[in-house]
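Model: You mentioned two targets. I'll fold them one after the other.
Researcher: Yes, keep them separate.
Model: Target one:
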Amino acid sequence: MTRPWLPGPDRIEESYARLRPMVRRTPVVEIAGGDLGVAGRVLLKLELLQHTGSFKARGALNAVLSMPSTVTGAVAASGGNHGAAVAWACGIVGLEADIFVPATSPVEKVRRIERYGATAHVVDGYYPEAYQASREWARDRAVVAVHAYDEEAILAGAAGVGVEIAEQAPYARRVLVPCGGGGLYGGTALALRDIAPVVPVEPERCASLAAALVAGERVDVPVSGVAADSLGAARTGERAFAVATELGAEPLLVSDDQILAARRLLWEECRVLAEPGAVTALAALTAGKVDVRDGETVVVVISGANHPTIPADVVAPVST
């Protein structure tokens, strides 16, 4: 099998330099390890403060800026976050954007795509059905498809998360990231490959990278659960699989209950409200799947916050 084209250090540096004036350098916030049930130091990388409410803005803008000047439009399939990011990026450079979104995505994510000026096409099913519909729609049109996670430009843009972590927490012993199709994992792992190991964390109910590593090849997995709208890739990306194989990654899996518990804890301890998929990495920590010893530092990426309201399962009613 031919190794896919992965961004090297020069490409990552060049992409970050190009994007730096247009994206946010998101903060790293320390939370006492004891509040999360671990002995060491925990730093939260708050990518939910990025433009469009998720890390996706980095890769989408990098992909759009890499398009030929003759391109007039872009198409993408997305559970919502990537679509909003592509719509935002296209708005910056004056391109039309058509975004295909599964009906399982929250209505607020669809509205956000439209607020950025794109046309949203809602498709029955999950991400795979939206992706297929986008391919069929684009077949006879002069547009460029922007894949949600399996493009070199997407990984090179997402690698900015790792570049910033290397500067903000060079002493980190490991970095935990949510993993769906693998764009965030792949980019961050490549940026930090000589600095700290990056651990991908997947929901048990859409664990495509873990299944691929067990099988020795990319395979389709069932997709469902509370994090499916943002991490519901039925098959892991070719590039994420190559990075995980090359670096010997061992994904951690978390249940829906563990994800929701981590989301609730993040709100209660930090008043940070993330979407379920964005806290899968934190869930691995709070569920006791990561041993953080006294004196060690772990960075946890909180990847997005596109949700309609403060849900009842996170914040209990306050009595007066």
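Model: Target two:
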Amino acid sequence: MRRQSTHLSYTRLLHTLLKTTALGLLLALAGCATNPSQRDGLERNQYAWAGAVRWGDFEGALNLIDPTVREKNPPTALQLERYKQVQISSYRDVGADSDMEAGTAVRDVDIGVINRHTQAERTVRYRERWRWEPEAKVWWLVSDLPDLWDGQ
């Protein structure tokens, strides 16, 4: 009799532990309830943006900038020509933060810039600011093209 009651106690304890663990996992998953396609979309667009800048395709990079931002501040032909005078040697992520519920993200990067004429290299810090558009299910960059001359 004693053995059976001990077995029942262990069984109840095990069931309680399993229920508690399952509840904990469920709550943890609810806390991470971001839309996977939203996070994937951010990573995909950040990767595309970094690739376009890294390979000097600044006109292509413009396609990832929020259309309202592009419309308010379109780059001039002269500004686009200036980008042809530099070679990007690196594009390194140095910090990022995102709030999926608010639909915002920022990423700080260091961009290695080489002047094609002087071969002088320098590093420019750039902050990407991203905005999620839920209707279109797309992330838009809301900052302009990087200022690779930083006041020069």
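Researcher: Noted. Anything on target two?
Model: The beta strands are 86-99, 104-115, 121-133, 138-141.
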